[in-house]
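Slide 14.
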Amino acid sequence: MRVSKRESAADNVSDKGSEKTVKDDAVHLKRQIGLLPSISFIIGTVVGSGIFIAPKGVLINSGSVGLSLLVWTLCGILSTFGALCYAELGTTFRKSGGHYTYLLETLGPLPAFLRLWSEFIFIRPAVASYVSLAFGQYVVQPLFMPCAAPTALVKLVSMLGVTFVVAVNCWSVSMAARTQMLLTFIKMFALILIIVPGIMALVNGKTENFQNAFDSESLSLTKIPLAFYSGLYAYGGWFYLNFITEEVINPNRTIPLAIIVSMVTVIVFYVLVNVAYYTMMTANELLMSDAVAVTFASRALQGVAPAIPVLVALSCLGALNGGFFGTPRMFFVGAREGHFPAIFSMIHIRNQTPLPAVLFLYPLVIVMMARGEIFQLINFASFSRWFFIALATLGMIIHRYRFPDLPRPFKVPIVVAVIFTIVCFFIVGLSLYSDPWNTGGSCALTLSGVPVYYLTVKKSYIPERWKKAFNTLSLHLQIFLEVAQQEVKTY
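Slide 15: predicted structure.
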């Protein structure tokens, strides 16, 4: 039993204007994300803590300055190929949900459920915890320099940051979008602050750190996939617009255009930022730094160096906001399809936000931050995330072969899709050899969803007593949260 939806007057209305008013007033996720918010959403989610943390991981696993810059460029190109594939998927399948929806439509319910399960169990909590703690570290650390910041205070500030983001996304979709736009402009300003003095120094002849850029004795082919993982982690987020397809205005035009503009912008900025880093720091100095942007600022931006940690913290907050804006839509769609409890497919009747799905993530992130054991899970997240992305683009290729006449408003060249899919599977497969413990753990956690799927979704073996108790709990939650099923089909 569920709380009854508000009665619709559409059946009694004869004129189109009144019917439109009823539809606008009905409980549903409205299309209110235009082109500029879409671009800021992608850039704001991609540019987070990664560009300030990943350079160290890329350099240590690539072995040289020149090769690390090549990895950054190739990671950007590879991410753009994937983003273009998702542009086709997003305009072919007009549902929100991203990876989950595309796996469901092309490869079937089991792979889709496993993607949903892995996102819930470890991918999103790990990534959100990592970004949150980076936010807390950059906020607190300047207050205690040169001493280390208290761990408890860092975690407390991190939790406050997560709480703020969750509250904004629960309150209003438009407010979350405006917050994302503001934070995106701030973080791009931070990157410009890094790029300009670095490039000016390079133009003025400071090129000694680029001498013998490809000369490395520590290069190991087994470490190259880990270098790509670090780079791809920094580029991660290009797929989040596909999570909110049903809320994008004119998605056939907006999604491809936003993806292309965003990815070109991010690649240019990322490569220039790394060039600026290497201009002012040697490879060894970069590897020894725990906060690359802060070390850079202390040398190149002494006048505004204290502002850099604040700008980096706001950058992390923007990435966190983008994650909490997009990922709950995956759970929302999964619940709508019957793969998650129905309460998570409900919408707040006044604020028109997917309130239960947003709140769903909050306790998991808080628990993981409190434990602090997240860095190993980042490797878990990278393996599983890219494995399912490769499956989604493989599914796109198969679907295009099976249904060649299906309308596709945006069609990526098949060679781009094939190259992206092969490279992703190659990186994922080679990482099993390079880091078998973490990637094996990721496989195990992902496959743990198989019995859950067959016991709860495919065939329900849940005792009736448990079902009744869960339905009663869901009813009380629905009343308390003031949520209802959507009343307008948005796909």
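Speaker note: The chain has one domain: 31-485.
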